[in-house]
Write a structure and sequence with these properties.
The protein is of the alpha/beta class. It has helices at about 65-70, 95-105, 115-120, 125-135, 140-150, 155-160, 170-175, 215-225, 260-275, 290-295, 300-305, 325-335, 335-345, 360-375, 380-390, and strands at about 15-25, 35-40, 55, 80-85, 90-95, 180-185, 195-200, 205, 215, 230-235, 250-255, 280-290, 310-315, 350-355, 395-400. Helix 3 runs antiparallel to helix 4, helix 13 (about 335-345) crosses helix 14 (about 360-375) and helix 14 (about 360-375) packs across helix 15. The radius of gyration is 25 Å and the shape is globular. The protein starts with 15 loop residues before the first strand and ends with a strand.
Length: about 400
């Protein structure tokens, strides 16, 4: 009958099973930011990815937290229930309560207003019902904001706070959002590592007002994975694409884990050079707080520079000296190189990382455009020129 084996063919997102090949911390154990490199062996999965794409991680909830919730909520972990698939909520699947809480139901995620509104229907206590209705409506806007942003409460916390509202698990599944995959920029080039895919991740963690350690669900899941562990992943296309010609320069600015896609870019350019192709200049600007703790992949960058792949390495460690030095400062100090690579040689500029440096970095590029036009005796509007470069995919931002 020409049947084929497929992993979850009923879902719209194509998923693959891969296993952990390496999981190593890049920052010192004593440092408050845990940035780590995780690499997956693709095995026989058939997963293919392009430069600049993102890997979707289909993470699981923390086992101890799930056990605690099952005890507190008096659930039978073996009971079979129907739950919406996390990839396509219109597809229902049968899971045990344990499986549903581990892989489907975002019980430790942040609840929206509509959850409070829905939960109010189940409250037997009049004051709890009123408070839940208020939190779900306009009158409780300030309190809702405080709970969401200061207390960082989860669905599970709310169920604990309002004991008279005790929906059945079947109802919980209906009113709590399904877990979503988390996407991370791929930090490797498949032409260089055909059988693996790498990510660069920072663990998201904070302490809430009650003194409890809180963590981002996916980064915690990834950080705890041991070599050999199986993970479900998917691939997501991205705006971060290499220019059409290998001779076009790359100007890249990465802050923190924003360096991830640029590791793939540089690997690809090194591969092209090894094939005997002529490659354009590569300008890599990186920003973090301290060189000693956060110079991630530093030895790799320097090796690529020695090999003639990276032309310019602009390192901005903001807190290593009395005056703050940011990525835009390093760019401004090398304005001549940017004018040559970006404007004279028609390079492409990429910025990846948090949104805050976008105005300052764009300002440097606009100054470069104005200075170049002046030297040629031309009049130009730098802002309009940036818009034109954007349309040509020569000004690309991936910020979050």
């Amino acid at each position: 009958y020409e049947t084929k084996t497929a992993l979850r063919p009923d879902l719209t997102t194509k998923t693959y099973t891969v296993h952990v090949k390496e999981n190593r911390r890049l920052t010192p154990l004593t440092y408050d930011r845990n940035i780590f490199h995780i690499e997956f062996d693709l095995g026989p999965s058939g997963l293919k990815y392009e430069i600049g794409e993102a890997l979707g991680i289909h993470a699981e909830n923390d086992e101890l937290q799930v056990e605690e919730f099952i005890r507190f909520y008096k659930l039978d972990p073996e009971e079979v229930v129907e739950v919406p698939s996390r990839e396509d909520p219109s597809v229902l699947e049968n899971r045990t309560v344990w499986q549903a809480l581990m892989q489907n139901v975002d019980i430790f995620g942040r609840p929206p207003k509509r959850f409070y509104e829905a939960l109010a229907e189940f409250a037997d206590d009049a004051s709890e019902k009123h408070e839940l209705q208020a939190l779900g409506g306009p009158e409780g806007a300030n309190e809702f904001k405080r709970r969401a942003e200061v207390d960082t409460v989860t669905y599970a916390d709310v169920l604990l706070d309002f004991p008279s509202a005790h929906p059945s698990f079947h109802d919980i599944v209906r009113i709590v959002n399904p877990m979503k995959r988390r996407e991370y920029s791929i930090a490797s080039c498949q032409k260089v590592t055909p059988n693996s895919v790498a990510l660069m991740i920072v663990v998201v963690g904070w302490v809430d007002p009650k003194g409890r350690d809180r963590f981002g669900q996916a980064t915690r899941f990834l950080n705890k994975l041991r070599v050999g562990a199986l993970v479900t992943v998917s691939v997501k296309p991205s705006v971060m694409k290499l220019p059409a010609k290998s001779t076009q320069p790359l100007i890249m600015a990465g802050l923190g884990t924003g360096l991830a896609p640029f590791r793939a870019f540089v690997q690809h350019r090194a591969w092209e050079k090894a094939q005997g192709k002529e490659i354009g200049s590569v300008l890599l600007y990186m920003g973090s707080r301290h060189q000693r703790e956060e110079y991630c992949y530093g030895e790799e960058w320097e090796a690529y520079q020695d090999a003639g792949v990276i032309t310019l390495l602009g390192r901005a460690f903001s807190r290593d000296q009395p005056q703050k030095i940011y990525i835009q400062d390093r760019m401004r100090q090398t304005m001549g190189d940017i004018i040559q690579a970006y404007l004279k040689e028609e390079g492409a500029f990429y910025l990846c990382g948090p949104t805050w440096p976008v105005p300052d970095v764009t300002n440097v590029l606009e100054d470069a455009i104005a200075r170049d036009a002046k030297s040629l005796g031309k009049k130009t509007d730098p802002h309009k020129e940036i818009e034109r470069l954007k349309d040509q995919l020569r000004y690309v931002l991936e910020v979050y």
